[in-house]
Known about the structure:
mainly alpha
Amino acid sequence: MWTTLVGLPHLQCSLAILTLLSAHIGGFVMGLFVGVVFYPIISESKRHKTVAWVFKMAAIPAAIILFVLLVKNFYTSDPYAGMAYSHP
């Protein structure tokens, strides 16, 4: 893909920035999911404990699905296949 963009340095720069931003956003979201799971419940309220456990049970599968999808996309033969706009 980079060979077809040789004459378009502004597009190369845009793709590099997009890649860096999406990596940082993905890491942030994954950190939130894992942080929710390991954060202790410090409230005495039964309602707060229930809400916290619901979020924990929702964050575990969400983190696993996100991790599997990101690893699968990283190790595909064409990682840009998911971005239809990048192919001519």
